Every structure is written in structure tokens, then in C-alpha cells.
């Protein structure tokens, strides 16, 4: 599998099959999945805690560290997909709609080069 050839539907099936094979649907309530997702996101953040922005970008030069970060990111993605499966959310449609909403909220001409805060003129 790779990003250029794998569909979201295939990822959903991969996660769903994994859960089904272990009879874990009984544990995969939205409540439990959301907590697991938050925990995995925190584990991802731990890799970047207390380091500089430049050091965080340099993780790509450290194969072992990049592999650890990749695994945490995969856990975040797996729980995101599991949540979508549990609630019947269409990830592609939802992401597209959210990006349209974000584009209206943060117009490129106003926010280019800024991190989400409009500087007020005095």
C-alpha cells in the first residue's frame, strides 16, 4: 500500500478487518476511540516536546526517530479511521467540507504567511 494507490475506503477496510478479526467492535465505542485517539496524539507530541522547530523538521534525517514518529502517526490515523467506521462518517466528504469552511474562515489573501491570527493595525 502507498498514498498514491490506496483509497480511503481501502484504509477503512484494513482497520475494520483488524477490529473484526479480534472481536473488538464491542470496545470501539466513540467514547473509547476518541480517548485512544487523544492518547496516541499525545504520544506523537512527546517526540517533539521540548525541541526546537528546526530540530522537529530534522527528524526526517534520523531514520530511527522517523520510524517511531511514523508509527505514532499511523496509530492516530488508525483510530481516526476507526472513529469514522464506528460513526459512519465519510472522511473524504467531511474533510473536503471542512477545508471549504476553513478557506472561508481563513482567506489566503488575508492569512498568507500568518498562523491564523490577523494582525490588527493601530
Task: List the main descriptive attributes of the protein structure presented here.
single chain, 122 residues, mainly alpha, Helix Hairpins, 6 helices, 66% helix, globular
CATH superfamily, by name, is: MazG-like
| Multimeric state | single chain
Name the beta content range: under 5%
**Total number of β-strand segments?**
0
CATH architecture grouping:
Orthogonal Bundle
Q: Radius of gyration over alpha carbons?
A: 18 Å
Number of helices: 6
What do these coordinates show?
- The protein is an all-alpha fold and 122 residues long.
- 5% of the residues are buried.
- It has one domain: MazG-like (Helix Hairpins).
- It starts with 7 loop residues before the first helix and ends in an 11-residue tail after the last helix.
- The protein is 66% helix and 0% strand.
- It is globular and about 45 Å long.
- It has helices at residues 8-21, 30-46, 53-57, 63-87, 91-105, 108-111.
- It has 6 helices and no strands.
Amino acid at each position: 500500500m502507498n498514498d498514491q494507490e490506496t483509497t480511503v475506503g481501502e484504509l477503512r477496510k484494513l482497520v475494520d478487518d483488524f477490529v473484526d478479526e479480534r472481536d473488538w467492535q464491542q470496545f470501539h465505542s466513540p467514547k473509547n476511540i476518541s480517548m485512544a485517539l487523544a492518547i496516541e496524539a499525545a504520544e506523537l507530541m512527546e517526540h517533539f516536546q521540548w525541541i526546537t522547530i528546526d530540530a522537529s523538521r530534522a527528524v526526517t534525517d534520523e531514520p530511527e526517530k522517523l520510524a517511531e514518529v511514523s508509527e505514532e502517526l499511523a496509530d492516530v490515523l488508525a483510530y481516526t479511521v476507526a472513529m469514522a467506521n464506528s460513526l459512519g462518517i465519510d472522511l473524504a466528504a467531511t474533510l473536503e467540507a471542512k477545508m471549504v469552511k476553513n478557506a472561508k474562515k481563513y482567506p489566503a489573501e488575508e492569512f498568507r504567511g500568518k498562523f491564523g491570527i490577523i494582525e490588527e493595525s493601530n
